[in-house]
Amino acid sequence: MTETQSTTPPQANKVRRFIYRWLFNTNLDDNYAKSTENFISILIVANLVALIVENIDVVFQPYKSLFHFFDVFSLVVFSIEYVLRFYTAPEDEEFKGRKLPRLSYIFSPFALIDLVAILPFYLQFIGVNLDLRVLRALRLLRLLKLLRVLVPAIQEFRKLNKGRTFRQQVYALFHTTDTSGQLHEMVDNFVVWWVLISVLAVIMESVESVHYHLNIEFIVLDAVAVAVFTVEYFARIYSCVEGPGNAGAFFGRFRYARSPLAVIDFLAVVPFYLEALLQHLFDLRFLRIFRLMRLLKLTRQSKATGTLLKALQREWPVIAASTFIMLLMVILMASLGYLFEHEAQPEKFENIPQSIYWAVVTLASVGYGDISPITPIGRLMTSIMALVGIGIFAVPAAILASAFNDQLHKEREAMRAELYVYMEDGVIDDDEMVKIQEVASRLHISQAEIDTLVEKAKNERRAAEIGHLPIKSIAEHPEVAFEEFRATIGHLRQIIAAGDRDTVSQIFAQEGRATALEKAIWEQMNRG
Asked: 155 lies in a domain?
């Protein structure tokens, strides 16, 4: 008799199963297990950040109580997690078959890590006196809790890439493939977080009071960020030959290095090395501002960027024409402004290049007021420019928005056509569904819409197989009959729209040319 059967009442079993199912069972998709893991992971990283910031007195001392509250909150969350995992251990697949599942859980590696993460705080209540600095240092052990998420992802990655070369594994780690798994998503998220942290550091570094106190911290943080981005850049260069279109040890890597995303990755790290290597020859401090280029690395994770670039490329001739008209209008207005206002305001309309600034802010309907005409004809021209500018700047935006929407529609239609190809054998297997969901995620199509498209494709396939819908088939497949009826109504609407309604109505009115039902349907649809 197991521990669960001997000591636990049925009602407690139900509660335990409920908690495990909704919070910890990672084999299910319709629960909160993934959300729980993500929340715990974010809290662990936040603890690391708080621990680092606590060593900066100028930041820590004014908000000491908030840091203490966050530490207590984290401790409570980790403690509740440990207790709930201990309580639900008999439901865990790893321990449920053992004689004493909870005892087995206590001595499991992840449980020991969870205990170590909270134990230093509770040791104070049993007479173990710990120095405050030691207690803070021991909080670093909470980072080990990330192994609960990281280890399964590594195991999955190794299983998916068994028998593959090291370069193929590196490619799968940094690019989305069938063997990437969750570890690829973690690496992507890790890089994204470092991009955000490094960009935030560059912004805060420009604040003199912050830079004075955190100068060393900014230098260390930038060095770590550059190390992360450098490893990523060379890993992508090394493994790119495994991707399509980059065959060849030298020319394949050269082609990839010239791609926009690779150039962005290169620009994210090159300012650091140039400043470090050439600072004794040139003053290259201005290159630090180019560290903000790292923000462009996020375009790799933006799934809609490709669609926007395709739309921009397709409509570029029209956008270029509208841009040319805009520039022509700016130069023309700047020249007229200089002509009419130079004598009245020689210090403001000193030359045409200076007048271009006034023309741009006026056409853009911004009008800062630092430069404004004072002559009657100059003010009249400014009023006309302000009205024209509303349309001038709206045209490229409207063209781009329309092109983006049209491109999105085309890609959705392409996905729908690909879905019909997958349905040729009557079944969509798991690999095909994964591909459909990847495309749907990029095109912002929800799972409900995917299910609707799949069901529609199945119905159309059944309709094609059934042909003209004999009575027996209609009885067996009423949903197909419904789709066929809707298609027939659509054809009737096209006939009515294309034909001469009056003439057809006269034919319907002739005796014997149509049945009463046909006449009723014609009259009803003709009125509609």
From this structure: no
